[in-house]
Amino acid sequence: DVSLRNVTMRNATAPYLYGLMFEDINHSGDGGIYAELLTNRAFQGSDVKLGQTPGLDGDVIVQSENPRLPTGPVLTGWQAIGNVRLSLDKLHPLSDSLPTAMQIDIPKNATGEVGFANHGWWGMDVSPQNFTVSFYVLANAPRKKNSSPTDFNISLRSNTTGEIWATTTAKRIDVPTVDYYQINATIVNTKTAPNTNNTFVITMNATQVAGQTFYFSMFSLFPETFKGRKNGLRKEIAQAFYDMKPKFLRFPGGNNLEGISTQTRWKWFKTIGPLKDRPGRPGDWNYYNTDGLGLLEYLQWCEDMEIEPVLAIYAGFSLDVFGQEGTSYPSDQMRTTILKEALDELEYCMGNASTTYGALRAIHGHPEPFSIKFIEIGNEDWFSDTYPERWEILYGGLKKAYPNITYISTTFNEHKNYTIKLPPGTMWDTHHYEEPQYFLRNFNFYDNWQNSTNNTDVGVLLGEYSVYQVNTPSGIINWGSQAPVDKDAHVTYPRMISAIAEGVYALGGERNPSVVKMSSYAPSLQNLNGYQWTPNMIVFDAGNVVLSPSYWQQWLFARYRGKQTLPVTNSKGDFNPLFWAASVEEGEQVVYVKVINAGAATVPLTVNIDSGYSGVNGTILTSNDIDDFNFFGNKTVVVPKPLVGLDADGLGTVNGTFKWDVPRWSITVLQFNTG
Ligand code: AHR
């Protein structure tokens, strides 16, 4: 029985409940949502092996040789064309941040086309659109008298047939010898390549350049991006996020915020400004991060999706390589270095143009200050016993400067029994990578939350959760098994059973809006060709994007959230296998009843709405097999479908009873028209 009449029993739903968690893992950023098409564009480091063709259904996995240490500088991803020699050069840096250039020596006897190709992030998609190109070039000697300036032919080509899809030429460039010259160009492409085994090619004519040496640095090739942002996001992936109707984006980590050493932590001030001034860093997930997707790009991502940033700030603790205990900043540096850095970061985000860092942001192209409502202090700090002090320093210092921000602490871990006492108005970030049974058992986890943590008025960001492994004999999460090793211990792709279990847990959150204020699946993205963690909500390669059942569960719940929760009473027994929650939409026209059948048998359902309804429709996510998943060969095994022919009898009745057999293994949102 769903009560619309008893308004005193309602609660406001959490306005930011469903959102996104993002960090650069699994090439989710470089080689993922960051739309740059070139791998190793400034020779900083790469795990993309040359010539590797994208695997469609297979698991082609590339790890750097030392799994925790991305190597660089390297020429990986680049290939010579014609009679030339490519090498790394350290004597002609483009900038302090990009110390390595690519040298090309063209012998005197060279003929024909000479140059090089880049193979992209395991290939590149070529479809009709304009591609934006830029690169820097320098010559080692002035052009000889009577020789002609250089034409740089820039093209997109098939790596298998050599066919040229589109080309443009930067003509008659008198390449300087002192400072680099930047070439900007547009490739207008009208063709659709049959596959993603394509390359970006720059060539010169040997008649013009034989005997010369050039240095090249900082290449870039962008397709059209989400909402047309310069240096922006890959359209199809961003669109998939946007379609979920998320309310926030937590970034930039995750572990990747913390660094595998204090020196290599994510430093916001090294991720801003012109790309040639961003050094990048060895990320936490075994590959080099360019930081092309930097602080401003994250904020613009939020702006373009109309969502709130949940900015995670570095909290003075870095993970260590080879399983050591991690490194904490000494207390005396917490204020002088770490708090100061965080305050500067916030000034960059929110300061107006009269402030030092606000002015810098304006120079970087965004004079309007952003608004930050949520700050997370650190990530998973239960790994460190220094957090209580670090939290006090950062929370105290930031709260003083920005009293209206909601601060999120990261130490809660029910398995580790490590909590600190938080002040009212703050939040915990809880993480759950679990078995399906865990989520079913803990449907009521947040019902008694305040009591269990001994805190009052402390909310929850359910910041990372997903079904990690399914029905392993021990039922214990096997952290020793990371992709690609030992796939049995954790699932490769989210399955229908994952979506069901995650959905049940999400319903537990929806029922407790005064506690669970925000939630996000993690990790969100995986490049099929280079990854460190499975399962992930969305899997992609250079040309495909696959949305998992877990994605669709999030999509379904985020779309139909409602303005207020409604009381539901049930005379037929407790939850399980059926789980439910109800809410009413703004304007009272529509009541949503979310129902999950986690069992293997159909369950008859009767819904009474005390003020009646005049029509009902719904959307269902279900599958024949609970282990079904979507994959590259068949992306639509599990997708939401409209329910048709619902309630032929009850339609149009007032005070009517809705009867429906809930299919096994299903997630449904019923929409009752109550207007
Ligand atoms: O989501 C992958 C990792 O899981 C995150 O980086 C970390 O916060 C958690 O341990």
TrEMBL record:
Record has Signal as a keyword: yes
Keywords of this entry: Glycoprotein, Hydrolase, Signal
Stretches assigned to the Alpha-L-arabinofuranosidase C-terminal domain: 491-666
Catalysed reactions listed for this entry: Hydrolysis of terminal non-reducing alpha-L-arabinofuranoside residues in alpha-L-arabinosides
GO biological process, one term: L-arabinose metabolic process
UniProt-listed Gene3D superfamilies: Glycosidases, Golgi alpha-mannosidase II
InterPro entries associated with the record: Alpha-L-AF_C, ASD1_cat, GH, Glyco_hydro_b, Glycosyl_Hydrolase_51
EC number annotated for this UniProt entry: 3.2.1.55
UniProt key word Hydrolase: yes
Any Pfam family hit: Alpha-L-AF_C
Pathway in which this enzyme or protein is active: Glycan metabolism; L-arabinan degradation
Enzyme class: hydrolase
Molecular functions per Gene Ontology: alpha-L-arabinofuranosidase activity
Family: Belongs to the glycosyl hydrolase 51 family.
Name of the molecule in the record: non-reducing end alpha-L-arabinofuranosidase
Organism of provenance: Tothia fuscella
